């Protein structure tokens, strides 16, 4: 997947959060369905959710959902938990505005060179 090079302002990133939350909820649902399906197939050999074709279809649908984020220039960092970064600049420094599954708003950032371990509240 190709990412569109983009730098966000805090306001631009925050404006996208309602759609990010909606799309993340769909990814979380699909992720759980796929996890159940693959575990059932591995352990029992069968699943009420289907078989290998349904696994492949679920993976393709997840890829389609993720593609929306990358097309916007949003970096998908993790699927479980679902974590995205918005490239930005704060006080002349390269940062990532950071949104994590379960967050109600965009309230965090970290320096690009530090990653999630350097996560701080937005000023």
Question: Could you explain how this protein is built, in words?
Answer:
- The chain is of the alpha+beta class.
- 45% of the residues lie in helices and 23% in strands.
- It has two helices and five strands.
- The protein has a five-stranded antiparallel beta sheet with strand order 1-2-3-4-5, with helices on one face.
- A hairpin with an 8-residue loop joins β4 (108-111) and β5.
- α1 (10-43) packs antiparallel against α2 (52-72).
- The longest helix is centred in the N-terminal third of the chain and has 34 residues, at 10-43.
- The mean pLDDT is 93.
Please describe the topology of this protein:
Elements: H1 10-43, H2 52-72, E1 75-79, E2 82-90, E3 93-100, E4 108-111, E5 120-121
In short:
This protein is α+β, with helices and mostly antiparallel strands and 123 residues long.
Provide the β-strand percentage band. Answer: 15-25%
Distance between the termini: 32 Å
Summarize the helix and strand pattern as letters: HHEEEEE
Shape, please?
A: elongated
Taking all residues together, what is the mean pLDDT?
A: 93
What about the largest sheet?
5 strands, antiparallel
Please state the CA-atom Rg, rounded to the nearest Å: 17 Å
Binned, the helix content reads 40-55%
The helix-and-strand class reads alpha+beta
The number of helical segments is 2
Low-confidence stretches: none
Identify the strand order in the major beta sheet: 1-2-3-4-5
How many β-strand runs?
5
Write out key terms for the chains shown.
123 residues; alpha+beta; five-stranded antiparallel beta sheet; 2 helices; 5 strands; 45% helix
